[in-house]
Amino acid sequence: MGSAAVHQSFVVVDVEGYGDPTRTTHHRLAARAGMHQVLMSAFADCDLPWNDKAVDDAGDSLIVIVPGDVPKSLLADRLPTRVAAKLREHNAVHSHGARLRMRMALHSGEVAYDVFGGKSSPDLIFACRILDADDAKSALKHSNATLVLIASDPFYQSVILHDPAAHPNAFRLVRADVKEVRAKAWVRLVDDYQPATSVQRLPTPPPQSSKITALRAVVEILLRTPGFDTREGRDLVLRDLPFAASIARMSTDRADVVSIVRTCENYPGGVETLVDAIRFYAEGTTAMAELDRLPAARDADG
């Protein structure tokens, strides 16, 4: 016999493009680990309870059951912004294939449990269905956001609409027609930030030799390149260089990077080998794009 149904809240997340053929098994494992870490860290930041027994892992998605006595306003207000922040932190230090963008659904309802630890809940199934609403997928795909939030109509009407901190006016009404579900839902892009259109320029530095100027440009970019901006990251990259043993390592980040670049310049194709090794960890980042443009810039300078 099962127990009586109890009221719970549901948080369901899914990784966008998890099955993309450009992702390797290594990428998917990193993405899965990131998905778990992002959600657990966000829950901790919001002082929300995390119980491994209340989490169902479906490979590229997680279903989290939150006790009914936890204020739903925390799920609508604080949790989405913290999840988006943790996603950006994850993406800043992972290669393109391991990066994450997610959909997150919020709903609540009754859950019944059986003696084997299993559960049954039409409301929980409903939460999983609205997560796959076409409008939610399209909104994320055509944006710069890392997270799109989908709230059921009952959750929106009873929780979000009455909480200004949850940005009720930022949601738009959509239809969730997925399998057996035909329902209204509400969608909001949590962090759809546009890139800056202008950059404040620093004062022009005093004239320097072209070699020092070029070295400075490379070093400055490498110091902010994900996967090379820490000592541990550089240790990992240098394992792929055949002349790594010849590189004198320094105690400070800047001196260490200068020593690495200068040593690479002493070997035919050394700098290119270094850049290719870094690309595995930083492909798709702004810093990597800047690094790729440097050879063209040097050629233009003659």
Descriptive notes:
The protein is of the alpha+beta class and 302 residues long. The chain has two domains: 6-189, Nucleotide cyclase, GGDEF domain (Alpha-Beta Plaits); 210-297. Helix content is 42%, strand content 19%. It has eleven helices and eight strands. The protein has helices spanning 25-45, 72-76, 78-92, 122-130, 134-141, 153-158, 210-222, 231-238, 253-265, 270-282, 286-301, and strands spanning 6-15, 55-57, 61-67, 102-113, 119-120, 147-152, 172-178, 181-189. Strands 1, 2, 3, 4, 5, 6, 7 and 8 form an eight-stranded mixed sheet that branches. Strand 7 (172-178) and strand 8 form a beta hairpin. Helix 7 packs across helix 9 (253-265) and helix 10 packs antiparallel against helix 11. The longest helix has 21 residues, at 25-45. It is elongated, with a radius of gyration of 24 Å. Mean pLDDT is 87; it is low at 296-302.
> What fold name stands as the CATH topology of the largest domain?
Alpha-Beta Plaits
Task: Tell me the fraction of residues in β-strands, as a range.
Answer: 15-25%
Series of secondary-structure elements, N-terminal to C-terminal: EHEEHHEEHHEHEEHHHHH
CATH superfamily of the largest domain: Nucleotide cyclase, GGDEF domain
Integer tally of domains: 2
The chain-level structural class is alpha+beta
- Return Rg in Å: 24 Å
The overall pLDDT, averaged over residues, is 87
Residue share in helix: 40-55%
CATH class of the largest domain: Alpha Beta
Count of DSSP E strands? 8
As residue ranges, the low-confidence spans are 296-302
Biggest sheet descriptor? 8 strands, mixed
The backbone outline, from C-alpha atoms, is elongated
